[in-house]
Amino acid sequence: MNKTWNNRAWFMVLPVLVLVAFSAVIPLMTVVNYSVQDTFGNNVFFWAGTEWFEEMLTSNRFWLAMGRNLAFSAIILIIEIPLGIFIALNMPRKGWGVPVCLVLMALPLLIPWNVVGTIWQVFGRVDIGLLGYSLRALGLDYNYVNDPFDAWVTVIVMDVWHWTSLVVLLCYAGLVSIPDAYYQAAKIDGASRLAVFRYIQLPKMNRVLLIAVLLRFMDSFMIYTEPFVVTGGGPGNSTTFLSIDLVKMAIGQFDLGPAAAMSIIYFLIILLMSWVFYTVMTNYDSEK
After folding, report:
1. Where are the alpha helices (DSSP H) in 177-255?
2. If DSSP codes are grouped into helix, strand and coil, which group holds residue 224?
3. CA distance 234 to 23
4. Dihedral (C-alpha) 278, 241, 123, 84: value to the nearest 10 degrees?
């Protein structure tokens, strides 16, 4: 029997393809074009080849920013994943407390990133901010503007406050999908609370935890708005992550070639590490 193919469905997809081309493909090609050329303005370009990529990969500035990014992402994952699991495990499964908890968890996620940065910028100030003034009143020498450690703590706490809710909601969705029969069987067998978590709840959350780790890694590794609003990358360069350094290079210094090369390297690193995360966690899940 011969099949008749109807290709008119492509016309429904065409607007999406055009939108993706304008929003992703064309800007990406522009960045690639700048990464292999140099310009002195007036739309006059000179071929540079791989010069900008070599400059970035041999630059201490790039690797220091990379180290800060990796350290920040590692700290965020170490804090937010266990904290999100803990909160999800202690949220109610029935009754009026369920919608209340879900709304409270969703509230930080609804706040725009620049507003979050502004909130914590004011919140941490030692003269008018509640956090900064309270810590100073307790005798702690807190000042995120002048102290790199305080700046790091402020940025980390801000991100934990803003994004732990995402992990909580994902873990909670995995927990509520577990049938009651599993818990009833565990109760009959006399399983402890830790055993229930180890053999019932954690395996059922593997998929959502994979999503949570991937999302939080990508978001934390690409973070820009919140630390830029709070610290501007300072004090010094202590909170200058790759994204902030990239903007400074492209807009502040107008070094379009090095900035384009750096953005491509940045993109490939995120893509590679996300693929590693996904591969490791899916292989672990399939072996169980």
Report:
1. 180-188, 193-196, 202-204, 206-221, 225-230, 242-247
2. coil
3. 32
4. 10
Residue 19 exposed, middle or buried by CB count within 10 Å (0-12, 13-18, 19+): exposed
Q: What is the pTM of this model?
A: 0.85
Could you read off the pLDDT of 128-181 as tens digits, one per residue? 888 888 988 888 889 898 999 999 999 999 999 999 999 999 999 889 888 888
Q: How far apart are CA 70 and CA 270, in angstroms?
A: 11
Tokens, residue 76:
């965020």
What's the per-residue H, E or C state across 95-148? CCHHHHHHHHHHHHHHCCHHHHHHHHHHHCCCCCCHHHHHHHHCCCCCCCCCCH
pLDDT tens profile 1-39: 566 666 676 777 888 888 877 777 788 888 888 888 887
Rounded Cα–Cα distance for residues 124 and 133 (Å): 8
> Tokens in use for 276?
């590693």
**Number of domains making up the chain:** 1
Q: What is the CATH number of the domain that holds 138?
A: 1.10.3720.10
Amino acid identity for residue 247 in this structure: V
3-state secondary structure of 48: coil
Domain assignment present for 22: no
Query: What domain range includes position 71?
Result: 61-287
Please say whether the beta carbons of 247 and 224 come within 8 A: yes
